[in-house]
Structures
1.
Amino acid sequence: MATITEVKRETATLSNDEILRYSRHLIMPEVGMEGQQKLKAARVLCIGAGGLGSPLALYLGAAGVGTLGLVDFDVVDYTNLQRQIIHTTADVGRKKLDSAADKLKAINPFLNIRPFETRLSSENALEIFADFDIIADGTDNFPTRYLVNDACVLTGKPNVYGSIFRFEGQASVFATKEGPCYRCLYPEPPPPGLVPSCAEGGVLGILPGLVGVMQATEVIKLILGQGEPLIGRLLLIDALAMKFRELKLRKNPDCPVCGTHPTVTRLIDYNQFCGIRGEEAPVTSNVPEMQVEELKQKLDAGEDIFVLDVREPHEYQICNIGGHLIPLGDLPKRVHELDSSREIVAHCRSGVRSAKAVDFLRQTGFRKVRNLAGGILAWADRVDPKMPKY
Amino acid sequence: MAKIQIPTPLRQYTNKRESIEIKASTVGDALSGLLAKHPDLRRHLYTEDGKLRAFVNVYLNDEDIRYLQKEATTIKDSDNISIVPSIAGGARQ
């Protein structure tokens, strides 16, 4: 099995206050004074202060990792609080970096926190990584995943990886000298739209907790040089079944970035690599739209308009405007339920899925179908402020 | 019957089933059997020219079939086939 990648740093001395704080570590032979000094000397960069980054940073900070870098540009919102436990209700509207730094300093004033308020990019990644020993990837999109991986391979720093979807997680340690990298596992990203994101698919709040703590464990093991790191192994976590499975990963000699003849020798354009042109392409712009005010007016006037709701049944239970429910995925086989001679307005939560539905229906021959711009969220904002948003 | 484990993101194409038992002698046969039962899965597993997609890995027990005999890898009744697609969830970046 793979050998341990030890972070080699000159040891740092501990004050009496620190010795007391870390006493439960110090009396363990696997950590001890030497290990705690390694932790203090270590510099770990967490990409993202969200679901995975929350438990990761909290535990690394509490454990006494001396320098903790955080990269994030986002602001705390209410939908984050179900899982991003480093942030509190009072932090809504604050920068995640400020909120996270406050909690970390409150837990451990000996920490050196290095905030990077930026989106990690091909332009800044190598420079940011240069000051760190280990990179922990807690991002939620493919371009950044590949960017982090390639930058780790190019700078020779381990990539402690965790990823989540609904109630399933993956964890591994990539880009060590002897081990495989993320591209050995997945040479190419999925094309946009084929794999749903967390925002679309949802995520069980505890799952980033489980996976983020696993990442923190792997970071600490790498620093201490103890145990058997997740190098060359992909851990699959199914929280519903509470089953953990392990798959073997191999370093691919033909890997374009860490193989024997690499073709990727500097950072590339990862949005292009992942098939994303600029910001997510607005599908909505291609289909005819209706504003929520117009729909309200038509409904109030008793006009003949058919409201088609293409969300999932569990979303309908949260809130609805009385539309006929056909989830987007079922539309092709249930299209006979619709009358093409009637005026139809399709809606979903924010207008993306219903734009696809309108596009599909128009291709099928429906002419009087429009997309409700902004979806039920716009309805809640502009027509019915009592309607819950999700 | 070999068991094929379906990952969460693809269960919407298998009537929400987590695993499907298939009688087959190779990994490729098992996947064909799976697609015969659940044709909507096809575009998620295969490219238009019939190759397994690069972001979908197939494992026989804990081994990546790319390092065995790929889809020609023979299977036993007690084997577990896992489809492991890439997932990216975490923090918005």
2.
Amino acid sequence: MPASLRFLANRLLTTILVIVGAVALLFCLTLLVPGNPADVLLGPRATPEAVAAFSKQMGLDLPVWRRLAIFFGNVLQGNLGTDVISGRPILTMVMEVLPFTVTLTFASIGLAILVGLPLGAYAATHPDSIGDRIGAVFSVSFIAMPNFVVAIFLLLIFSIWLDWLPVLGAGEPGNYLDQLVRLILPSVSLALGWVGYIARLVRSSLLEVMGEPYIRTARAYGVSDTKIIYKYALKNAAIPTVAILGLGIGRLLGGAIFAEIIFARPGIGKLVYDAILTRNYPVVQAGVLVVVLLFVLTNLLVDMSYGWLDPRMRQSARAGGGH
Amino acid sequence: MRGVIAQIWGRSTGRLGLILVVLILIMGLGAQVISPYDPNELDILNRFSDPTWIHPMGTDHLGRDLFSRMLYGTQTALLVAVSTIIVSLVVGTLMGIGAAYAPREVERAILILFDIISSFPSLVFALAVVALLGPGLGKVVLIVSITLLPHFGRVARAQVLSLKNAPFLEAERVLGASRARLVLVHIVPNIMGPLVVLASMDIPVVITIEAGLSFLGVGVPPPLASWGTLLNDGYANLTETIWPVAFAGLMLTLATLGFTLFGEALRDAIDPKLKTDR
Amino acid sequence: MNGGGTMTTSPLLEVRNLDLDYATARGTAQVLRQVNLTIPRNRIVGVVGESGSGKSTLASVIMRLLPPNLSRLSGEVRLDGTDLLGLDPAGMARVRGNKVAMIFQDPMTALNPVFTIETQMVDIQRGKFPGRSKRELRDRALEMMAKVGIPDPVRRIAAYPHQFSGGMRQRIMIAMALLVEPDLLIADEPTTALDVTIEAQIIRLLEQIRENFSGSILFISHSLGVISTLCDEVVVMYAGSVVEQASSRDLFLSPRHPYTRALLSCEISEEDGGDTALRSIPGNVPDLFDLEPACIFAARCGQAEPRCRQAVPPLRELAPGHRAACVLA
């Protein structure tokens, strides 16, 4: 088996183990909840009979290992349980809001790449220039500023002071322009830190790549500087940047909670947060599980995209090991 | 030590970081001395005051002095950051060293545990735990230190693996030194550099998570002041006054910026090769 | 070779009084000192010397691919009468890959790992043939790959560098250099990074190429053996200075500088070649910091006399076309 395939197989196995571990961990957390979950969910006014019936229905009277097995079985079938409050399947509730969170996350990461990449490329091609220094200050400030602070400041500036953009909610269904406008501030609030990250990363990896012998080869053949930077060097420099993006998605999913709450957008984060406030544990559990799944799978995807960027990671059968 | 500080001071970003860090330490450690008011003293008649000579940052929705609350918030942030980092550093390092010396299966199990922990975005993990166990200062410290375990554990393990078969350790082993002695006397001092750098770079991360949880109302419980709760109070009353949000956001930003710049300067001074990709 | 007819025309490349210093943490390193060199048209000139003799730096100066810590560069590098050191960056970019091309020492790192051979072979021709279509450039590349002995070019052109062996990669580098039909081809130790059997194959390939190649070649190597099989003329460098210069035949039959003689005897006594052989000359290459005004080889020279340590000996013409920088020669 070629090394690259073995890498993928290994990566896949780890991913599965991580998911299983995460599910188990989430289950174990519910065991630590003080008091009987049925009491907490039904509130203090519930009759003992109602609590007992509810416990039986939820399987709370079974031994722990049985409950874990049932939990696993349900998760595998995509059954995340039924919401006690609304009586709807939790999976449906999650699926309803998932597109909003995914849109927000991808809009943010797209924005961050769109702005961060040219900034980093500029800084790398003009090292120690005024622009590079100013860019460095902005990058580190963006990275340092927590995204909920950015979100509140944006809300303050654009909706309270300037009254420019409609900011709250996700927009009318079907009205794409309205939805797009309302996506601007939340995604900017999430993207800003990543603009700084990507700019810095692109700068440092480009500077490193520009010192490589293969760049000297391109120079030695009079290939133009623009082409060397934006075609040759950037693809090499993109590899470490993509590695960071995988982790970035995770942080963005965490940050999306704030953006969704502050800008009153529907989404997984808002769902989980509201569930926390009402102590609706099964919904919290399901929301967190979905976020973890998204995160783990995106990371897997990112690892596999190395093959596209870096042919050395690809299996070498196609052009045929001509050594 | 003096050389490291001089090196940090020698760079403009390091200098800014150091100044901010010292300022925040003074504010946090000296909160009781500097505060002009009791941070919980109510003055309902004087709520939503703009910054004045009497209230340098104004007052909040209950008329409490914001400057005093900000100082105590600094103390909370530092307290949470330092205790979290210490817990995580000690436990994570021990796990890392353990993994390096343990049999293959145990090592693999520890590494997979690290992978599982890292697969939860730290804030989401903290939210999940807090939601289930309820808020509390100690819980915040515990949860956040768990999410940071893999940072320290992985670095410690890698450092030990690179040192394990170093000739100077080989010599000691031949002379009959015990494993505990080897780890304590030789390994620990040798891996401290990168771990200290990592710890300092994790401070802004912890500060952000604590403030974030508190902002969501599931972090540090009232009446304790935290930048996050201050921000949330201000956010809820944004139509009345912008000052609480402005000052709390500013403090939080200056703190994370200061510790980030300081951490990076420290890394460049101690161990320029250490890359912190996370 | 066909020297007679071209002797009268101006030389292709003339390097005059070239001085180059690097600023380092330790101080100023004098890497090249008063280097003079002439490359006639249609000739292969070899430059030989130990590592640190400045031979690769000389190539970098001609290509103007120099590191940023350069503190002094003076003298002239005239290609076809144009002083390359006086060109602006855009003008120099037009010379590279057009009039001059270069083959690098390490074929494992000289090709971009994330682009196919096709992309790279097409792009390097753009400067020379701006008007031609990608298709034409690809066809030229395929033809050249076949010429340098890469089997199955049509399939292999779509492969990535890591899918080729070191020897094959160096063939690709040679093909790239030939594709732009340069007036001057610089080969900077093209076989050093390869193992011995592959090295022999590449030397054979270069021998074949020189039959049909219309330009001149500057061939840099630390091995006199390799130089002798390929070159018409040889320049011997030591610690940043040219110490001897002669036709290949004259140099091997009657070396005049003690350093050249030492090099020759090393290579004859030790078959394995390479830098290890050179180290068997007693003593070390001098420090390039704070050089004394004396013969640079005096410290290691068995025949050194007091006058060798009083002044830098000039490069003197001892016989037609044979020069050496030694007062004893």
